[in-house]
Design brief:
Distance between the termini: 32 Å
Number of strands: 4
Strand order of the largest sheet: 1-4
Largest sheet: 2 strands, parallel
Shape: globular
Length: 91
């Protein structure tokens, strides 16, 4: 997967006041198909100033038979609201 920005760009802009980094990593076991949150890896080390949003619980519709189903607008807004410090400030 290609990054949205390069690591050199991130390093140069890491202290920008309007930069927000949201990690939504998941771990997929290619043998079993099991999908697990990447929160533990984020907690053990992450980009300074980043926030974690769990793709399995925060950014997916609960109780759906498929994983990674897009959440409702309300659920998404609530998940982003809980990460207010990582979200851009109003201009």
């Amino acid at each position: 997967m290609d990054p949205l920005v390069s690591t050199s760009w991130l390093e140069a802009h890491l202290r920008d006041g309007d930069l927000r980094i949201l990690d939504a990593t998941v771990d997929v076991n290619v043998t079993t198909g099991a999908v697990e949150s990447g929160r533990g890896r984020w907690e053990s080390g992450h980009i300074p100033g980043s926030s974690f949003a769990d793709l399995l619980t925060d950014l997916a519709q609960p109780d759906d038979r498929l994983v990674f189903t897009m959440p409702s607008a309300e659920r998404f807004a609530a998940a982003m609201g809980r990460r207010a410090p990582c979200m851009p400030r109003s201009r």
